[in-house]
UniProtKB/TrEMBL annotation:
Residues 259-358 form the T4 RNA ligase 1 C-terminal domain. This is RNA ligase, phage-associated #T4-like RnlA #T4 GC1653. It comes from hydrothermal vent metagenome. InterPro entries: Rnl1, T4-Rnl1-like_N, T4_Rnl1_C. GO terms for molecular function: RNA ligase (ATP) activity. NCBIfam families: RNA_lig_T4_1 (TIGR02308). It holds the Pfam family RNA_lig_T4_1. Residues 54-252 form the T4 RNA ligase 1-like N-terminal domain. Keywords: Ligase.
Length: 377
């Protein structure tokens, strides 16, 4: 690894060791361990920590024979909705460099294993989205596109895409599955290669599948008009300094969730658990009281959620050598009744649905009404 990559790996490792909001998964494949860094429920202050913005699907490969570490896949840094938090407030919209359509699907990035192109989602090498995206890419009609992605990988670049399909949509309907190119990132430097910098002679299909770049003579006015648009999710705009920002139209936000979520502690709790509260903050960015209520719920849920995950994972790591019977007896003694089933799911190598658990036991984890406007960091 070069200095940039080594610092990134060390920062992310420290982040996971010191902050419950961040974690990594190890995926052994042949003689390689793929270490994927991600976040659970993280606050604005969490993302202010060194390299924390990179902790959203970035992946390193670790050679099990030599111990050599390489940066294998480099997605976008975490970016936020306009007016969601201090990262995206008080922006000079006259300094917008580019506006692009925002696709409504799942983030997919490239990596290479044993010389062959592979795709991954933000959190997994084998998620349903990653598998479906790879199956789509391997179709005959995508042969040239696949070859170009492989060439990009050989140049130490990660191609960042959105997988959109009928089965994978969030709100918007898609007639057929497609992979839209969102960006390209150099793994040696972390720098971005933008649409206008792509070599059209050697990468025509990547350009052809790039998400729509919106042409406008007045970027500021266009962004201000997004609120009133319909039929689209919104846009992503890039500032001259490279900062990326999301802007979703009110039509989409109202389809995705209801404003009543803020008035219902249970619905707001669920919105935070399922990571949709950022959109609520965009809707109510000009109401400081509502913003405080949402932010306090985020702090509360993040702390509870991350503690549950850490508790289960630590219990499992300490006791996974035990027989199933011994493990179960210890779990019943050491863990609360709601947590015990999670520990057993972990032991049996089944998916642990922490979010479903949090929602089911809302009455245990809820934020008391008296605390809603009085939470400190």
């Amino acid at each position: 690894m070069n200095d940039y990559q080594a610092k990134l790996f060390n920062d992310l490792t420290t982040l996971v060791e010191t902050t419950e909001a961040f974690y990594y998964n190890d995926w052994p494949v042949d003689n390689v361990i793929y270490r994927n860094f991600n976040y659970r429920l993280a606050s604005y202050t969490d993302f202010c920590l060194p390299s924390a913005l990179e902790c959203r699907g970035i992946m390193f490969s670790i050679d099990t024979e030599t111990g050599e570490i390489s940066l294998a896949s480099l997605p976008f840094e975490k970016f936020f909705n306009h007016m969601e938090n201090p990262f995206t407030m008080e922006l000079n919209l006259n300094d917008i460099k580019e506006i692009a359509d925002k696709a409504d699907g799942s983030l997919i990035t490239t990596y290479t294993h044993n010389g062959k192109l592979r795709l991954k989602s933000k959190g997994s090498l084998a998620s349903g989205q990653a598998i479906a995206a790879m199956e789509l890419l391997e179709k005959d009609e995508n042969k040239t596109f696949c070859e170009e992605l492989s060439k990009g990988e050989q140049l130490d670049c990660t191609i960042i895409m959105e997988f959109c399909s009928v089965d994978n949509r969030i709100v918007l309907p898609y007639i057929e599955a497609e992979l839209k190119v969102l960006g390209v990132r150099n793994r040696l430097t972390g720098g971005y290669i933008n649409f206008e910098d792509i070599d059209a002679e050697h990468f025509p299909e990547i350009l052809n599948r790039w998400t729509q770049i919106i042409q406008t003579d007045d970027a500021k006015a266009y962004i201000e008009s997004v609120d009133d648009m319909s039929g689209i999710e919104g846009v992503v705009f890039r500032m001259k300094d490279g900062l990326r920002v999301k802007k979703k139209c009110t039509w989409y936000l109202n389809l995705h969730k209801n404003k009543d979520n803020v008035n219902s502690p249970k619905k707001l709790f669920e919105a935070v658990v399922y990571e949709t509260s950022d959109d609520l903050k965009s809707l109510f960015h000009d109401d400081p009281i509502v913003i405080e209520i949402i932010t306090n719920m985020e702090k509360h849920v993040s702390k509870k959620y991350n503690h549950v995950v850490t508790t289960i994972e630590k219990f499992y790591m300490r006791n996974k050598h035990l027989s199933r019977k011994e493990y179960a007896i210890l779990g019943q003694n050491d863990l609360t009744k709601p947590l015990f089933p999670l520990a057993m799911m972990q032991y049996l190598n089944k998916e642990v649905d922490y979010k479903k658990h949090m929602v089911k036991y809302f009455n245990i984890y809820k934020l008391e009404e008296s605390e809603a406007l009085h939470i400190e960091d």
